[in-house]
Write a structure and sequence with these properties.
The complex is a heterodimer of chains A (about 150) and B (about 240).
Chain A: E1 25-27, E2 33-36, H1 43-58, H2 72-89, E3 93-95, H3 106-111, H4 116-119, H5 126-138, H6 144-152
Antiparallel strand pairs in A: 1-2, 2-3
Helix pairs in contact in A: 1-2, 2-5
Chain B: E1 2-3, E2 6-10, H1 15-19, E3 32-34, E4 40-42, H2 47-72, E5 73-76, H3 84-97, H4 104-113, H5 117-127, H6 131-138, E6 144-145, E7 148-149, E8 169-170, E9 173-174, H7 178-187, H8 192-197, H9 202-235
Antiparallel strand pairs in B: 1-2, 2-5, 3-4, 6-7, 8-9
Helix pairs in contact in B: 6-9
The chains are: A mainly alpha (about 150), B mainly alpha (about 240).
Chain lengths: ~150, ~240
């Protein structure tokens, strides 16, 4: 049982310090706090990357728009996942609170490196780990609007 | 030329070389749609197709601009690469994109020095033959038909052939189609090779194209007026 505080207790010990948060902070749907740095990568590079991904995702090798086999809703999700991946890849986002101490999240990524981007990541490099965490765990589809706003702002 | 305080050596290039690029992604084609009667038609109104067309234009313009940089920029002083903002960007691009040191100058030009549309347009207009340059000459000479500028006057007997060129536009600048250059060179008796690699400046070429177009427009109006007159006489 915690000791009861007495009148003599130092007040500063029981007051929760107000945290000063930076302006470039995004709190994602699952509560992860991300700092974003738009000047870390050229906007033109991000735009170029997104355009290429969109076209490669939605056109076949002859340029025919893919339709029918994939439902529009799935396409939207796929495009967004690509969007998140590319943005995170370029380290626009950074973990405000750092990586979680428990690193069990790494194992599934090591076991199933389906994406080419994952394959070229070095799991012993902390910077790469941070990118992987942002890509796979910090952002979700619910953050779509906020992410797009940041890119377009 | 001077861009954002950086001095770079550039040279003018031929439009035919700009158009001659290999793109990794094919031009979007509309999805096919089967009607109730079994006929298959192309669905040009599909939202995904329209979005793809829009993005493809942006993709193509970027690839063409890369080609313009590669061919027109001769050199840039390495001291400009020491810019702090650029160093951060470059380190990130090296980390993720595995960029190589020999790619840095090109990346600096593409993503940093010419990051803004206005700066890109400044380079394009300096090294490439644009419709903007041609229009300056085209609009500088006055020609009227019955008091009305011939550029605005209607041609009654115009024939719509349905033939049109798909323009290449980067930012707000349209690149002159090489076929227009070829026609002017041929009609002027200038060997094509001389037109491409000779001593003619971009202004020389632009004025030749502008005068050729103006001459054809005047000719069209003359034919139109003659035909109207012939119709009038035949009605009498």
């Amino acid at each position: 049982m915690p000791a009861r505080k007495t009148e003599e207790s130092n007040e500063s010990e029981i007051v929760v310090k107000a945290e000063s948060l930076p302006e470039n902070l995004l709190v994602t749907a699952n509560g992860t706090r991300l700092l974003y740095h738009k000047n870390r990568i050229p906007a033109a590079k991000i735009q170029e990357y997104l355009t290429t991904i969109f076209l490669k995702t939605n056109l076949d090798e002859k340029g025919q728009v893919k339709e029918g086999s994939t439902k529009e809703q799935l396409e939207t999700v796929q495009r967004f996942l690509n969007l998140i991946k590319s943005i995170a890849t370029y380290r626009v986002f950074e973990l405000f609170d750092g990586l979680p101490e428990d690193n069990s999240w790494i194992l599934p990524l090591q076991l199933a490196p389906l994406e080419t981007d994952s394959q070229r990541f070095d799991f012993s490099n902390p910077k790469h780990l941070e990118i992987l965490y942002v890509q796979n765990y910090a952002l979700s589809t619910e953050d779509l609007e906020a992410v797009v706003d940041i890119i377009n702002s | 030329m001077l861009i954002n305080g950086c001095e770079i050596d550039v040279r003018s290039i031929s439009n035919i070389d700009i158009f001659n690029i290999q793109l990794d992604i094919p031009e979007p084609k509309p999805p096919l749609f089967t009607l109730d009667d079994g006929r298959v038609i192309e669905n040009y109104h599909h939202p995904l197709y329209n979005h793809s067309i829009m993005l493809y234009a942006s993709y193509k313009a970027t690839e063409i601009f890369k080609n313009i940089i590669k061919r027109s920029v001769l050199d840039i002083d390495s001291k400009y690469l020491l810019n702090n903002e650029w160093r951060i960007m470059w380190e990130n691009m090296c980390l993720i994109d595995h960029m190589k040191p020999e790619q840095e100058k090109f990346a600096f030009l593409l993503y940093h020095l010419f990051a803004n549309d206005s700066d890109r347009e400044k380079l394009i207009d300096t090294v490439v033959l644009t419709e903007l340059r041609v229009s300056k000459f085209f609009n500088s000479i006055s020609y009227v038909r019955q008091g009305l500028d011939i550029r605005d006057a209607n041609i009654k007997n115009a024939v719509n052939t349905g033939i049109e060129q798909l323009p290449v536009i980067i930012g707000s600048l349209q690149i002159v189609n090489p076929l227009d250059e070829y026609k002017v060179a041929s009609e002027s008796g200038i060997p094509w090779n001389e037109w491409l690699h000779g001593s003619m400046s971009l202004d020389d070429k632009a004025s030749a194209i502008a005068l050729n177009r103006l001459d054809k427009l005047v000719h069209l109006h003359q034919e139109d007026a003659a035909q109207i007159e012939a119709e009038r006489k035949s009605k009498k």
